[in-house]
Amino acid sequence: MSFVVQPQAMHFDGPLALRSGASISGYTLAYETYGALNAARSNAVLVCHALNASHHVAGVYEGQPGSEGWWDNMVGPGKPLDTDRFFVIGINNLGSCFGSTGPADIDPATGRSRGADFPVVTVEDWVEAQALLLDRLGITRLAAVMGGSLGGMQALSWPIQYPDRVAHAVVIASAPNLNAENIAFNEVARRAIVTDPDFHGGHFYEHGTVPKRGLRIARMIGHITYLSDDVMNTRFGRELRDAVAYKYTTQDVEFQIESYLRYQGDKFSEYFDANTYLLITRALDYFDPAAAYGGRLADALAGCQTRFLLASFTTDWRFAPARSREIVRALLDNRLDVSYAEIDAPHGHDAFLLDDPRYLNLVRAYFGRVAAEVGAA
């Protein structure tokens, strides 16, 4: 059963220096909290979100049916990340379109939407902004940081940037950087957006348009990569919308998989901001903590003082298990405490959001250990 939650916002007069060399001031971060912070302030867990998610990790908004958080099966009372034991924080990343300052917001200096002028942001920038918000909440050390996919990259970056501020990092279905194939998928999706005539160089707000065609295609491309071949064949196969083939023109929707992808694309184009999509996929592309160490991931992780849980899924070809094993090897090279699970699941990359009992029980057991450490058992 979901619980009722209330979104919050925290304003920072800034400035926040970004890795690009730019800075942003006068920004706001949207966030939510669940559970209670204990007297020792030792039971806080930060959950980092992936590409199209937000600070709304769990629970529901009062009077809004269907408003469950994106990880509601993972976080809540009695759930694997148990809010009866932990104080859980979800923060919407800078540049997003769900409450934190982003491209659609007005720049006080110009009186115009920031649009394409919004500065480039990185995973490391997001982690720094998260740390500033935690400072305001009086949380100097996290019991754990947790995330899947792009959220897992943030969870990996936390103990690199703030080794003394996080006891555990839970990194799920993630990677130490994107391979060329993943960057290529992101670039094709971005080109779909920027070549949409309604994009107007990123300043479409002033033209009263939305590049929905580009957003639809971008989402369709992304969604293909989130599902495994097995899942697509099982759910859709070569099934036609009608029993008779050749009924439609070449531009019509004939196969069930086509109908599904178009539905996902249409839905996405109604709520997601095109400039935010460009920003977040670029942050994915840029993330590579080993780059500053000649490509040696073990050197990048050498200063970590954190214990780790990593999990991957056998049919996830976008963030394949081999990428998680790279992180595990680098942690072991540093003699760090790491647990790793490779789960045989058919769902592809989306498995980290689903209800696989083995996966949920793994996370539950790990957070049971964390709870015992912080006196929240």
Low-pLDDT runs = none
- Distance separating the two termini: 21 Å
Strand count, sense and closure of the main sheet? 8 strands, mixed
Oligomer: single chain
Secondary-structure element order, N to C = EEEEEEEEEEHEHEHHHHHHEHEH
CATH topology of the largest domain: Rossmann fold
| Rg, Cα atoms, Å | 21 Å
Count of runs of 4 or more consecutive helical residues: 10
Q: What's the CATH superfamily of the largest domain, by name?
A: Alpha/Beta hydrolase fold, catalytic domain
Which CATH architecture of the largest domain? 3-Layer(aba) Sandwich
| Helix/strand/pairing category | alpha/beta
Indicate how many domains the architecture comprises. 2
Strand content: 15-25%
Top-tier CATH class of the largest domain? Alpha Beta
Shape: globular
* Number of strand elements: 14
Query: Helical residue percent?
Result: 25-40%
